[in-house]
């Protein structure tokens, strides 16, 4: 019967046990999953882990440690947690500590408030699928303060498992159609690979629009129009994604740029997705974070009453760096009521976001206030973290620009630099099996222990090559890293000239 149906035959093993062909094979699995790629944890990172293991086993290398600058994992790079946040989370996790006199009273009162919002006064209970009501109220008040009084309805807030969860959830709502009617989503190039990976998995069409490297990775409306017009020939563009401040490029978009993008989305009937997880990470003089929502509402009812906007924030970046707690939120603006009901249904399938992440999100949007015992230390720690990042952003740009064959735009914000590298033609021809910047970064890893991500993993203009590196390592280790990059690039260029 199996043979008649075209199924693999059963086989008899050497010991006489019947062996059945596997149900799930590389040929029978979901084909869209095979198209998913995620550069920041790709082959270079796997090799970096192998090298760490080899070093621990005593194998001799040209370096004594692997320095990973491939991912924005702040605490893994040595950034210290905010004391108040960890105190409250400790109290929530183990309420017996509420009797401990070493914890400040404002941390205890915050913990009690969070626990009272949890079923059975325990963070181990499920919450509402949209998130804890009191946390969503605090998020709404935070947005109102941030945006100068623009109203925010807690019912438009959805707490999420990091920003990534919210982004993928929105893409799920958007994707439909087949062939020429298939949903297209506009994403910036270079882009954060979450977007390309999610679109591949969902079977949507990725529409690339290119940031202008010569103008510090700015957005260009004529480029958006070009990408949109070309895409409409083979798909149905429905959404425009913007990352501001930028990942991997570290730029901060101007208010004028955001206005132009909103007008473009309105004129072309596109839903806007604003990834704003780095909103506190702004370093360059003259740069300022402007939320898409604030600009939208300042443009008046013609736009604020019609443009569909979803914005995202996270506990993983900024001065917090609490990646592992997976906290975040998204705010929806002008969403159709029936679609909103479907969104609520969709998030209910996963029951609720992690409760510690929800609690942490509450602390981020409602930190210690002036006059409270923890306020001064909170401000001191927050300021120190952001100041250190600003110094490292400047250091990274300065050192990279001293290297002949490397050029780096100012790191205006976020946690990354995305310098352009000149690769000799001989090196480009060296290995046809991989991208030239992958060859470059892999060779750097093997020779120096520095783990960077090739620009090809994020997308780049044809004929240009880049790498992405975080600015997160401590200053002394970042200095070592940058000097090793300099030495390697000079040696690499000489070797292949």
UniProtKB/TrEMBL annotation:
Keywords of this entry: Aminotransferase, Pyridoxal phosphate, Transferase
Pathway noted in the entry: Amino-acid degradation; L-alanine degradation via transaminase pathway; pyruvate from L-alanine: step 1/1
Domain of life: Eukaryota
Pfam families found in the cross-reference section: Aminotran_1_2
A GO cellular component entry from the record: cytoplasm
EC number: 2.6.1.2
Gene Ontology terms describing biological process: L-alanine catabolic process
Cofactors, names only: pyridoxal 5'-phosphate
Ranges in coiled-coil conformation: none
Gene Ontology molecular-function annotations: L-alanine:2-oxoglutarate aminotransferase activity; pyridoxal phosphate binding
Keyword Transferase belongs to the record: yes
Keyword Transferase among UniProt keywords: yes
Catalysed reaction equations from the record: L-alanine + 2-oxoglutarate = pyruvate + L-glutamate
Span of domain Aminotransferase class I/classII large: 103-483
Complex and partners: Homodimer.
Annotated family: Belongs to the class-I pyridoxal-phosphate-dependent aminotransferase family. Alanine aminotransferase subfamily.
Its biological purpose: Catalyzes the reversible transamination between alanine and 2-oxoglutarate to form pyruvate and glutamate.
Name used for this protein in its record: alanine transaminase
Source organism per UniProt: Sander lucioperca (Pike-perch)
